[in-house]
Amino acid sequence: MKERTRFAPSPTGMLHIGGLRTALYAFYLARQTGGSFVLRIEDTDQARSVEGGIENIVKTLHRVGADPDEGFSYVDGELIERGDLGPYQQSKRLDLYRKYALKLVDDGNAHYCFCSRERLDEIRKAQQKAKQQPKYDRHCCDLEKEDIEQKLASDTPYVIRMKVPEGKSKIQDMIRGEVVIDHSEVDDQVILKSDGFPTYHLAVVVDDHFMEITTVIRGEEWLPSTPKHLILFNMLGWDAPKFAHVPLLLNPDKSKLSKRQGDVAAESYLDRGYVPEAIVNFVSTLGYNPTADREIYEPDEFIDLFNLSKVKKSGAVVNFEKLDWMNKQYMMEMDTDELKNRLKPFLNGDEGDVDRIIEVEKSRQNTLVDLASSIAPFKKLQDYDAHILIWKKSDGETAVDMLKEAREYIDGLDRLDDIVLLEASMKQWIKEQGIQTGDILWPLRVALSGSERSPSPFEYIYVIGKTEALYRIDNAINKLKGGS
């Protein structure tokens, strides 16, 4: 069966990694079955929508390779809306929602509610004081037709509420199995607000029906609301889609991962130099592993192997150190040309010859930003204090002598294009000279790098070449002798 799945975020800011995980799961299922992945923007809460919110969501999906088939997507670098079942933005579908809200009223499955905010607040406080579940008391449920018409004619503010019937809803959740919720726990939900906008509950049912969604994948926070949706599907005479409620993402202390507790925006990690493949791998395996025998997967493997029944029911703790590790694995597997191409956005246009730097640094750095930052010390020696050239209990005179010995050896080298051979031959020479390794390699490394913490001197010589290496050694000797 070809699945039609959807990702339906609100444009309230940058895309949370939890939202990205939901989107990826919907994307995998659609691709696996040869179906369609739909992006729908749920912006009925206008107060929370932010400028650029839609573009951010679409751009992030594009950057990780999960472009929707319908709805909003990037095509040739432009944000467009495409598909025959749109518009795919709820604020542009208000007439449709109102039509079905009124149908529910006409059929006796919903009713006008004219209760003021003050009255509702008083009821809620009284219920809370009595330790009762806060629910609407159906005050307006059985108003006479004449009363309703009079209030409507006098423009009395109102909402429309669904009438929850007695009984139970059985949810056949594709992750959790059967979940049963008694309707006594379900409130008479507002489905059309006083401003004419639908609430999520009506809009999502109408949209999923008319957009022909077959499987709804969403966060577990929506599980308690699913009976409301099943009831509405039944009232409107429509078949409900299948449901899969994905567990929450958690901080190490098991609290809910949220924007208030740190950087959880997917695009932020992309901008900080994590490659899309690593982001996809990391997010997709939070509480899920297709084969359970490895950690690293290619994007196409997630599509081929995707299985909702393998998603864990419990919340997944997010460990960003694992993202660092994953990102490094992907970077280490890339050849130099590929990495150089990925680095371009982080080099500010000053690329130059960075091939050898990439070769020696890629196994050390966690992100593209880290790798880009590691290039500068190779390309230009920064100023430093002479005292850091001296090894432990050694002295400046010894450091000068060692640097002179190293300079003479390096000046006589014929081949600098093989770092393994360079290191082996130089270490053999040091051994033959009877020199303490630290006495010569410490000042040499600092002289070449300008730092107490840096790659090995062999790597520096390999990258910067003989002429630049000799220049930096001369500079260090001059510093130790008291020169500028």
Protein model, in words:
The protein is α/β, with parallel strands linked by helices and 484 residues long. The protein has four domains: 155 residues, Rossmann fold; 154 residues, Rossmann fold (3-Layer(aba) Sandwich), CATH 3.40.50.620; 44 residues, no CATH class; 95 residues, Orthogonal Bundle (Arc Repressor Mutant, subunit A). The protein is 44% helix and 12% strand. The chain is built from 19 helices and 13 strands. The strands form five sheets. A four-stranded mixed β-sheet has the order 1-2-3-4. The protein has a three-stranded antiparallel β-sheet with strand order 5-6-9. Helix 6 packs across helix 7. The longest helix has 24 residues. The chain is elongated and about 105 Å long. The protein starts with a strand and ends with a helix. The mean pLDDT is 95.
Top keywords for this entry?
19 helices, 4 domains, 4-stranded mixed beta sheet, 13 strands, 3-stranded antiparallel beta sheet, 12% strand, 484 residues, alpha/beta, Rossmann fold
CATH fold call of the largest domain: Rossmann fold
Structural class: alpha/beta
The Rg value, from CA coordinates, equals: 32 Å
**What's the CATH architecture of the largest domain?**
3-Layer(aba) Sandwich
Give the overall shape: elongated
- Output the number of helix runs: 19
What is the CATH first-level class name of the largest domain? Alpha Beta
| Number of discrete domains | 4
Q: Identify low-pLDDT runs.
A: none
Rounded average pLDDT:
95
Strand ordering within the main sheet: 1-2-3-4
Distance between the termini: 76 Å
**CATH H-level name of the largest domain... which superfamily?**
HUPs
Number of strands: 13
Largest sheet: 4 strands, mixed
Strand content: 5-15%
Helical fraction: 40-55%
